[in-house]
Design brief:
The chain is mainly α. The chain has six helices and no strands. Helix 1 crosses helix 5 and helix 5 runs antiparallel to helix 6. The termini are far apart.
Length: about 120
């Protein structure tokens, strides 16, 4: 695979992350049109040019802006998953017989889960 092809493949993956899952009624164009709504600095035409390899430079400004948004989306998803796991662990600890012994740890886990889940701001 040439360097250009791998760059286009990487940009396509990032575009797909930003566009989100395709719905049953989506055409490729309607799906790609979601990207400029989330990344205000790029136009639909630029997204199409990146998708179809007309712009093959993975360091093009539009590709970088899309990459930044894709990384942010992935980070938020990972944080939400981690918050869910912490909530699950705290729930399991709460179900144990001796809650008094673990109450400080349970409170800490729940606080971290709220922060990761975006419910608290500190």
């Amino acid at each position: 695979m040439s360097e250009d092809q791998s760059g286009v493949k990487k940009v396509r993956r990032e575009i797909a992350i930003v566009a989100g899952p395709k719905d049953w009624g989506d055409t490729r164009e309607s799906w790609l049109a979601r990207v400029p709504r989330k990344v205000k600095t790029v136009s639909f035409r630029t997204v199409k040019a990146l998708w179809y390899g007309e712009i093959s430079d993975p360091e093009h400004w539009a590709a970088r802006d899309i990459r930044r948004e894709a990384e942010l989306i992935e980070a938020k998803s990972e944080a939400a998953n981690l918050a869910s796991k912490y909530q699950e662990i705290a729930g399991g600890m709460r179900a144990l017989q001796d809650q008094n012994l673990l109450s400080a740890e349970i409170d800490r886990l729940e606080r971290i889960a709220r922060i990761l889940g975006g419910l608290d701001r500190a």
